[in-house]
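Two proteins were folded this term; both appear here.
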Amino acid sequence: MAVKYVFVTGGVVSGLGKGITAASLGRLLKARGYKVTMQKFDPYINIDPGTMNPIQHGEVFVTDDGAETDLDLGHYERFIDESLTKRSNVTSGKIYWSVLNKERHGDYGGGTVQVIPHITNEIKTSFYKNTQVNEKNTEIVIIEVGGTVGDIESQPFLEAIRQFKLEVGQGNAILIHVTLIPYLKVSEELKTKPTQMSVKSLQGMGIQPDILVCRTEYPLDLHMRSKISLFCNVPVENVIENKDVEILYELPLILEKAGLAKSALKCLNLKDREPDLKDWKKMLDNLKNPKYELNIALVGKYSSLHDAYISVVEALKAAGGTYKAKINIKWTEIEKLTETNVKKEFKNIDGIIVPGGFGKRGIEGIMLAAKYARENNVPYLGICLGMQIALIEFVRNVIGHKDANSIEFDIRTQNPVIDLLPDKIGVEDIGGTLRLGSYPCVLDKSSKCYKLFGTQNINERHRHRYEFNNAYREDLIKNGVILSGLSPDGRIVEMIEYKDHPFFVATQSHPEFKSRPNNPHPLFKGFINACLENSKKSRSKN
């Protein structure tokens, strides 16, 4: 069958959950047996979010093929359980960069380069590209457009959608518009006018939405939906209520009940099928009905914006769900951690996780967290920076090189436990110049990591510029560190663990990017299991 396209836009305000709505639809369509993939189009001029401050923009999600992408791709992968690619995240920066390179190359034959048709044609080409690679494995493409209708920077994308819908014909491309139905407390009523005006903005660009997903705190009765239908020119059955949910993964079931997938398939002239959501419902039941509670300290550099570690948080929750454990995350302020308050800070903590990050701010505080976990047998999971910090702390306080450091934090250190990757020496650009994407790793069969994965050869995603300095290998091994994972050539240390510790495991990779709500990553499962054991021991002592 011809590939079908679903565009998802947002109106009224940002932060309505377009990405979660798109991902939920993807899950519902996949549950019906359709082959689904997803794309995100972001209007910002950056080539990708790789150089953007996580405190401003949130997490940078990395794909298997090494693309630094928007955090919404993490939601897509978790919901539809498919690995996406560099073609799955397109920014205005990438579009303009491509057009300007073609102009310099002479591809336009000396013609005047304009937004229409050159920019819009480039955008439409990107719509197609994501399916051309996996054409046999794609039946429906869901494409989210970032920003809000009415933003200046979004206009070329919307114009491209208008043209694209006309080109592929009715029933081959539809548009779902996510809007807000605000509640005015003073008059105790829901208001539809913001949705009406947002749809009118779309109509003014020549686009008629096929489905409206209305974000609301209160239920929409038939009268309210009929009013929206009348003024927005959308069938009443295609006005979908999207209420706030307590757990993110409830949304597919809420939208299934509201009829989103049924409406989308009808608009696409596709057959509706009975969805298989048994595994999803079981996973959700585990999350909603926990038997245990765990307190996990997340010791990160960007904890002021929780979205900076959204994949880590979701991986922890997914692993917790496996053991019916509710995860309470304590966001640790690393710059306030000191030798005198570290014990108090981690009192009643069942495990410590240190995620990735760049720069020297707060590093000594994170070092104290790693030391506390090592000395007090508290389960520890180090991710990327978390592995580097653990190794520096070990060389300082166990081996005895008190000035041990990473050259990222101290270029003059006499003991550079963490050094620059050889192929990054002399590289001045910071965008897209890290070790990015999926790399193979060979596990030591005697290690905890091997037991957790159940196989010796694995692949994990990376995003780093620095690596462990092999000059310190022998000293580490002599003092009880297991190099549990190495690159196939044996050169790069990918995973480590401590021999005489209940669970102290760290990896140079980012396992959170491959974790799924109904299929948690082995390292997170191992960590949460160790935290449960630690919690039981602590309670038995008390």
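Next, the second protein.
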Amino acid sequence: MSEKKLSFVIVADQAYVHYDGSDADFKAASASIFVSMTETYIPLLQMMERLESESVDFKLGLVISPLVCEMLENPELQKGYVSYLDQRIAFGKRELDRNVGNDAVINLVNGTLQNLQEIRRLFTEVYGMRVLPAIRFFSEKKYLEIIPTAATYSYLPHMADLPESVNAQVENGIRASRFFFGETGDGFYLPMQGWAKGFDKILRSYGINYTVLDARSVLFSKDVNLSESNGIFEPVRTNNSLVLFSSDPFTPSEITSSDGFMQNPVYRSQERDLGYELPVDELDGFLGEGNMRLETGFKYWSKGCGEGDGVFYDGKSALEQVKEDARRFCREKSERLDVASEKMGEISPLLVCVIPSRLLGEAWHEGLDFLEEVIRISASEKPFTLSLCRDSLDRQFSLKKISPYPCSAAGEGYGENLIDGSNNWMVRYVRKATERMIHLAERFPMETGLKARLLNMGAREVLLAQSSDWPVMIQEGNLPDRAAQEFKDFITSFSLVFDALASNTVSTEWLTGLEKKHSVFPWLTYKVFSVKK
């Protein structure tokens, strides 16, 4: 029987937050990135450090969007994160005083407090307030495969008829990977696995060898005969020999569905935070603009704890459940691979499991414990071999050719959640701005000096406006007003750039201020929007 393989691809993306220390409502806007750092990014590094120190072999694919990288490297945001941790550590000490005599609560407070103190120590003393070099270390050790993605995690099918825009997103995503991690790798992760005709030609023109698609893109292709196909267990290729891996359609639904792993009542409730439970007068420092309640990080209840119940979360019971769930996950994946292996003969079956990073700690408190247990089971019991996508490219030019079906992992398969009644107004603005940016790149092909700075700024604002995070936030009701305002600001700024170029006048003070505010992608040149000859 051939070797059974499983590849994990962790996808980390979230809305861009600029911080220079002056935003009065920064607390609410920064909550997402700080929570991710505390509950996912740094714990992920801790997990890898443990595994390496114990000589447990592991392989993980990691997609980390360029905007997340930009935020993690922002010195002001790094200082803000230390303040964020200090504030929560101080709150934890107050909780110890408030709950004197209640041993069950005291134990939970101490657990959270010690974790925050350790994360602060690691962030300031070990990582030097920079997480990305620590991630790069594991990439260089070949434990991680860094997979580039679009510059601002834009849903590219919406721009499929504007190839210059797709080029801009792809090229700057690749450059970001080289800038932050020193490599561009073999693959490219299309945001939300969105596919449209012609994308293979663009990706191959940048030297990209593979991408990961929603299983339907492969299975619904008119070129695929399901009775003869190896389905999602074997990669295929396009006419340009771009290798296509199919993501396992049962992951992450096995985690998030109503009966998924993370819904077990023994696991910690991530929704019931003290920031939403305590009276307002006890939340000094944890209120945003308009007395918006913010998370404290202190959560005492399990998912099975009813409203008004006492302390219910039991960490030891949760970890026992993690072991059981991880074993079940490994058993079920191994059984599926066994069935595929019987049919595929000498060809090794491969499952690619794509998991959003927020499920590993942020949304599912025990998510990283689950992943670590799966890795340990894989290393010790060999139900399958963990591999990287790039390690399965040996037959790149002999794989079966198909024309992928145009769909994605967004919405019900077609990205309809990005253009529903709540956010469809955004499309016409961002498309018009994109068309104008392409026109400007053609009109001013070789500018330098102040005009080039203005054109570069316009390109930057268009890329930021194209981010899929804004319509997603509005559709999900996650700070929708702020998302809408950020989007409008990017469009307005680009319009001012466009008008300044039309009138041949520009305020250098305004331009300098905007360059400082939106300082992402320092390598960016507006020429990336030029029509390729």
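The chain has a mean pLDDT of 93. DSSP finds 17 helices and eight strands in the chain. These notes refer to the second protein only.
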